[in-house]
């Protein structure tokens, strides 16, 4: 794993180790990815980080990493235990738990290399908290990218998703199959299905998303930061569309 993708501090807490970042194409890009579960936020975050630099910072993976650590050493704080329960059911983890976790990892948000936040914020309170953290450091978001996908497509993507329990790479049984069936291309480990990709959890996640999406999108629309992207094409095409939209937005706001 190269240092641009050093995510241990984000996943496990502790001191961020991102010693040097090569010159970034646009300076530091600070992006928030929004969209329904399964709309491709995680996939796009990986591709965008490769193209633009910065770290992929997913909140869902922090909770999953904590649970994996707990199953190997048996320890999980009561807050994280609660968080894992909410997650398994497909409900949102309460704001105070998520915000404590994000503040604890604030160094990753201040990093000179920039970031792509995936799964945070999900509520207006979380968006306001992020705004304050960045404002306190004199930093600003580059954009909030909203990936749009129909409900049927979301269900098809989530029910076919398989992930690597080690490196967290994501595959799809039909659309992005691994080279050897059921095995991670990167580390050779057997792929698994996420607990919250079962039909009942998917229904709850979709409902929860629909309840919170409109005010969150308004929050970023009102600040002139929202960019909507049709996510119904291949991962590479969707990433290209995102880069084009970011380039257009940067040109529209640059002086002269
Ligand atoms: P999280 O892990 O963030 O899950 P999510 O938002 O439900 O999103 P997903 O990871 O399911 O989907 P994605 O949009 O990243 O799509 P992906 O790229 O994987 O959160 C899990 C839980 O944690 C939440 O339910 C909540 O409980 C808790 N949580 C996390 N953050 C929180 C917060 N801030 N506040 C409160 N609670 C929080 O793609 C999906 C599939 O489609 C894959 O199989 C992929 O291979 C495939 N695919 C991707 N792109 C394409 C494409 N273009 N064409 C075809 N297939 C594609």
SSE-based structural type: alpha/beta
Taking Cα atoms only, what radius of gyration do you get, to the nearest Å?
18 Å
- How many β-strands, per DSSP? 7
Count of alpha/pi helices: 10
Q: Name every ligand kind in the structure.
A: BIS(adenosine)-5'-pentaphosphate
Low-confidence stretches: 1-5
Strand content: 5-15%
The biggest sheet, with number of strands, parallel, antiparallel or mixed sense and barrel status, is: 5 strands, parallel
**Could you say which overall geometry the principal axes of the C-alpha atoms support?**
globular
Termini distance? 40 Å
| N-to-C order of helices and strands | HEHEHHHHEHEHEEHEH
The mean pLDDT is: 87
What is the spatial order of strands in the main beta sheet?
2-3-1-4-7
Helix content: 40-55%
List the helices and strands and how they pair.
Elements: H1 8-12, E1 30-35, H2 41-52, E2 55-58, H3 59-73, H4 78-89, H5 95-104, H6 106-110, E3 115-118, H7 124-136, E4 143-148, H8 151-160, E5 161-163, E6 170-172, H9 199-222, E7 226-230, H10 235-253
This protein binds BIS(adenosine)-5'-pentaphosphate.
BIS(adenosine)-5'-pentaphosphate binds next to helix 2, helix 3, helix 4, helix 8 and strand 6.
């Amino acid at each position: 794993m190269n240092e641009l993708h050093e995510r241990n501090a984000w996943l496990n807490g502790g001191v961020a180790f991102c010693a040097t970042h090569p010159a970034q194409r646009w300076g530091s890009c600070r992006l928030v990815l929004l969209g329904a579960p399964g709309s491709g936020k995680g996939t796009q975050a990986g591709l965008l980080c490769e193209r633009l630099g910065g770290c992929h910072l997913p909140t869902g993976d922090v909770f999953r990493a904590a649970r994996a650590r707990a199953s190997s050493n048996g320890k999980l704080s009561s807050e994280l235990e609660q968080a894992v329960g909410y997650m398994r059911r497909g409900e949102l983890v309460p704001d105070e738990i998520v915000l404590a976790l994000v503040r604890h990892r604030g160094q990753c948000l201040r990093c000179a290399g920039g970031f792509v936040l995936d799964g945070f914020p999900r509520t207006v309170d979380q968006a306001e908290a992020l705004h304050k953290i960045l404002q306190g450091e004199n930093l600003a978001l580059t954009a909030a990218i909203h990936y749009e996908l129909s409900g049927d497509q979301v269900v098809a993507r989530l029910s076919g998703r398989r992930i690597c329990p080690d490196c967290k790479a994501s595959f799809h049984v039909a659309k992005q199959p691994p080279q050897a069936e059921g095995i991670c291309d990167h580390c050779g480990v057997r792929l698994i299905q996420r607990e919250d990709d079962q039909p009942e959890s998917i229904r709850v996640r979709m409902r929860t998303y629909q309840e919170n999406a409109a005010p969150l999108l308004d929050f970023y629309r009102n600040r002139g930061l929202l960019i909507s992207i049709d996510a119904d094409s291949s991962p590479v095409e969707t990433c290209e569309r995102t880069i084009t939209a970011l380039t257009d937005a940067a040109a529209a706001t640059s002086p002269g």
